[in-house]
Design goal:
alpha+beta, Fructose-1,6-Bisphosphatase, Chain A, domain 1, globular, 18 strands, eight-stranded mixed beta sheet, D-Maltodextrin-Binding Protein, domain 2, binds 2,5-anhydro-1,6-di-O-phosphono-D-glucitol, binds manganese (II) ion
């Protein structure tokens, strides 16, 4: 029996203490000639997540709940925390040389940042606060981001309108019972949890693979009667086959549960949102990249989401995304 002081197995165990920052630097080290620009952007997103998490958890104490009374470009009433989260991200990303342009759900147009010739190179698109209708009742909310390559010399909006398969990275932060940061840069899905006692995101899972099936569907059934017939047929089939329903009303929370437990999240076209409600560029595409990297599937109607060619920054889409077999079960009814 080895004595504790001679047992160094903890130094080789796979569950070594790794932070988001050390994970990002380790990934950077694998890329010959990497400049660190991309790592700096992820560092800005990590900092933003910590700041937003802190503000959300003290929102009622600091009296920053509720709406501002203003509307965003989406025609949606802005919550005070929508704007606070947006400003936090703009401030953190604006100071990073690698960011040429940012696009936000809360800003009408993309913001092009003056960059030197040999810097810039990335576009960061984000939904600063997703599920904000949950914020006043302490429900799950999140931040969603998408990172694309961008020519720093271009200030053409069209440069940012790339199909989702061109994303170089995607991720989200869930401000739930814990603050969870989920990230993919095309080499698997990795999950980190904020340890507020040390202010660091600790890696708790890498190369996540989602269950191929789970009898859970997630949609707003209040809209059921205005769903196209195929979706209604699917819901009847699911209920006849013992499926459960889970719906938080915040995409980040519903997709995170689907990633970890399996199932399918769907927001079909409705009478109120005939093209779907969710935004392609900074809600659907980043989530689609993550779920595909985890072995899942993501569709807009019968088209693979990551192949949809965008025409507008705030373009809407319907979504069906989740476990491969569960997405196929929906598609088979459309
Ligand atoms: P946001 O708060 O950024 O506007 O996003 C809300 C979205 C998404 O998070 C969620 O899945 C969906 O709206 C819920 O819509 P319904 O309330 O119509 O179900
Ligand atoms: Mn959203
Ligand atoms: Mn939002």
């Amino acid at each position: 029996m080895t004595s504790p002081d001679s047992d160094h197995s903890h130094l080789t165990r796979r569950d070594n203490l790794l932070t988001l920052q050390s994970h990002v630097l380790a990934e950077q080290a694998k890329i010959p000639g990497a400049t660190g620009t991309f790592s700096w952007i992820l560092s800005a997103l990590s900092l933003s997540a910590k700041v937003i998490s802190s503000k959300i958890r003290r929102a009622r104490i600091n009296d920053v709940l509720g709406s501002l009374g203003s509307e965003n470009v989406q025609g949606e009433t802005q919550q005070k925390l929508d704007v606070i989260a947006n400003e936090t991200l703009l401030r953190c990303l604006g100071s990073r040389e690698g960011v040429s342009v940012v696009g936000s759900e809360e800003n009408d147009d993309p913001i092009f940042l003056e960059r030197g010739r040999d810097s810039g190179g990335y576009a960061v698109l984000f939904d600063p606060l997703d599920g904000s209708s949950n914020i006043d009742c302490a429900g799950g909310v999140g931040t969603i981001f998408s990172i694309l390559r961008h020519d720093p010399s271009s200030s053409d909006v069209g440069e940012t309108l790339q199909p989702g398969h061109r994303q170089v990275a995607a991720g989200y932060v869930l401000y739930g019972s814990s603050t969870v940061f989920v990230l993919t840069s095309g080499n698997g899905v990795h999950m980190f949890v904020l340890d507020p006692t040390i202010g660091a995101f600790l890696r708790v899972a890498e190369n996540l693979q989602m269950p191929r099936k789970n009898k859970v569907y997630s949609c707003n059934e209040g809209n059921r009667l205005t769903f196209p017939d195929g979706y209604q047929r699917y819901l009847s089939w699911a209920q006849e086959n013992g499926y459960s329903s889970r719906y938080v009303g915040a995409m980040v929370a519903d997709v995170h549960r689907t990633l970890l437990q399996g199932g399918v999240f769907l927001y079909p076209p409705t009478k109120k949102a005939p093209d779907g409600k969710l935004r392609l560029m900074y809600e659907a595409n980043p989530m689609a990249m993550i779920l595909e990297q985890a072995g899942g599937r993501a569709f807009a109607g019968k088209q693979r989401l990551l192949d949809v060619i965008p025409s507008k920054l705030h373009q809407r889409t319907s979504v069906v995304m989740g476990s491969a077999d569960e997405v196929d079960a929906v598609l088979s009814h459309l």
